[in-house]
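Person: I keep going back and forth on a fold encoding question. Show me how you would write down a chain together with its backbone fold. Please set it down just below, with no commentary around it:
Helper:
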Amino acid sequence: MESIFHEKQEGSLCAQHCLNNLLQGEYFSPVELSSIAHQLDEEERMRMAEGGVTSEDYRTFLQQPSGNMDDSGFFSIQVISNALKVWGLELILFNSPEYQRLGIDPINERSFICNYKEHWFTVRKIGKQWFNLNSLLTGPELISDTYLALFLAQLQQEGYSIFVVKGDLPECEADQLLQMIRVQQMHRPKLIGEELAQLKEQRVQKTDLEQALEAQDGSGVLDEEEEDLQRALALSRQQIDMEDEEADLRRAIQLSMQGSSRNISQDIPQTSGTRLTSEELRKRREAYFEKQQRQQQQQQDSPGPAGQPSHPCETPSMSSGALGSGLGDAMSEEDMLQAAVTMSLETVQNNFTTEEKK
């Protein structure tokens, strides 16, 4: 149906669209129809002047607006009728007694012009099929032969005035093409207002969908931020747990050192409650190491398993003074701390062993 000429509604120029859709081409413009309307207005003025230019009816006529056109683009049936006379066409009222007496089946006509509340549109046969060429539709609407009479009757019930177009219409390409083929219409064209409303609704739905997608993307960002926060909290808890474990370990070492110091104090005589000076500590270390040296010397002088005296230790012996002084000078504070930790751990282990034997 692309070959069918169909002007869509622009403003209130439905009379122009009706004529051009009827003739299947751009035959009339608003300027040409306005010229016809002005000509009709002038003819009416001249008839009114025949009764006297000073008469009340004439002065009233001059004050009234034109009945053949207005500023919106509306044109009267007189304008349409005069425009069709140029092409040798005549309009007859479809429901008039004169036409009804002819008893002509609508299917045998060639075209109709319909009017309701200042709106005009054409129903025309093109080729062997009928089409509703209403400019308010998005395209031509196919009307079957059996539906044509019912369609016209429905328009009459709705208040439409229907005019039969008499005469030979100008030839058109669509009429020649559809004489050879018949068209099929799968979807009825919609009113332009319905199409605009549907497009608007689609735009609204698209906007809502875009907003929903943006909201979903925003929630995804929030979810990622929440996951990052959860991971940070988990790492913080792990660090706190590790610090707690380290604190527990330090307290255990401190307690073990306190236990070892109490055991050592049983072997080393205590002084008064005053803190020991560095000299007293040095003397006690010397006494402790001299005691260790005597025990080692006694082990070397004791006979071996075969009754033979054991060989002296390969390590050269030192006097107790030299030993105490050398050890006191050689051992750093870190070495002494390490030795204290080792002795405390050995003491704790011995205490556990003793408890198990008991």
